[in-house]
Design a protein that fits this description.
alpha+beta; 2 domains; 6 helices
Length: 328
């Protein structure tokens, strides 16, 4: 009896309950732990191309700085050229020149409605009336070869910079466009051989038909210089501004992959983009300034480099002579 009671007591002992194990729940928790890294898998390929784009934009930015400085130097060289009078030129002239004179032309342009036979250039502008304004829709031009002194000018590829003193309307008409009748007009602008011209171009074999700059104008020299100064200043600032934009975009694109991995903090990624864009703007403004100075004063930099090299060689030579001087 006593043993039975013992067994009964032992059978009634309550064992601690074991926690239930859910395999699927554990797998789900494992997936969640990997989730912050999984979402970046697709970004690695994008990051690679972002870095490539950044490097390309930075390279183009530096190339554009060089191009704008080269164009600026060419314009300055033209401004500094001596204005040569056509009648004083000899038969051995060559290279880039700036020549002034009255043209001689044996090839008159045939123009309907033209009052003169000595037209060496004309431009026909076709315009359309849009409300109260005439809007240019087409332009055509033609040149006649001419001579300045002993120099023949073939102006087909020249840039014409003209103050037109002769112009008149040659045609006005209307066309039905849908339910409306639209007015058109054609105006001809002419340059006569009796006008004094300045020609800038490369003289080769007593002929000008091109050059780094090939310009023909009826402006006087003072007005031409003002024109160059105005257009050059505008192009210079545009070139520097566009180069700076490319460098900033390139820097941000290059660093964007690093920034994109920090978006696990709400709002932190875009805030960092703004800060880094501002930093890139400041740094690249300084870079554009120094690169511009280096390209402008490259000759001074070369002199300084040679001078420093000379000092280093001289100091090294003295260091070798010092032991011998102590021995003597």
């Amino acid at each position: 009896m006593g043993s039975q009671k013992k067994n009964k007591k032992s059978n009634n002992v309550e064992l601690p309950e074991l926690e239930s194990f859910d395999f699927h729940d554990d797998v789900h928790r494992h997936k969640i732990s990997k989730e912050p890294f999984r979402k970046y898998r697709g970004k690695f390929k994008t990051s690679f191309w972002s870095i490539v784009l950044g490097m390309l934009l930075i390279l183009i930015g530096f190339v554009f700085i060089g191009y704008s400085e080269g164009s600026h130097s060419e314009i300055n060289a033209i401004r500094r050229m001596t204005l040569m009078h056509a009648e004083k030129l000899g038969d051995s002239e060559k290279g880039m020149m700036k020549i002034v004179g009255t043209p001689e032309s044996k090839c008159a342009l045939n123009l309907d409605g033209c009052d003169h036979e000595d037209v060496i250039y004309y431009s026909i502008i076709t315009e359309k009336l849009d409300g109260d304004d005439w809007v240019q829709i087409k332009s055509e031009r033609s040149w006649s070869d001419f001579k300045l002194g002993s120099i023949k000018v073939v102006p087909a590829n020249a840039e014409g910079v003209f103050d037109f003193k002769h112009s008149h309307s040659i045609n006005e008409y209307e066309k039905n466009e849908g339910e409306q009748s639209v007015k058109y007009r054609e105006t001809i602008y002419e340059v006569y051989a009796s006008e004094e011209l300045i020609v800038i171009g490369n003289v080769k074999n007593q002929t000008i038909e091109g050059g780094n700059q090939f310009i023909i104008t009826n402006k006087n020299h003072k007005d031409l210089v003002k024109y160059f100064v105005g257009s050059d200043r505008l192009e210079w600032w545009f070139g520097k501004g566009f180069s700076l934009l490319l460098l900033v975009l390139g820097a941000v694109s290059f660093l964007l992959p690093i920034i994109s991995f920090l978006d696990i903090f709400p709002g932190f990624g875009w805030g960092l983009v703004s800060v880094m864009t501002l930093i890139a703007l400041v740094i690249n403004t300084i870079v554009v300034f120094f690169v511009t100075m280096m390209l402008t004063f490259w000759w001074l930099i070369m002199i300084l480099v040679l001078f420093v090299f000379y000092l280093i060689v001289k100091i090294k030579g003295r260091e070798k002579e010092l032991p011998n001087s102590f021995l003597t």
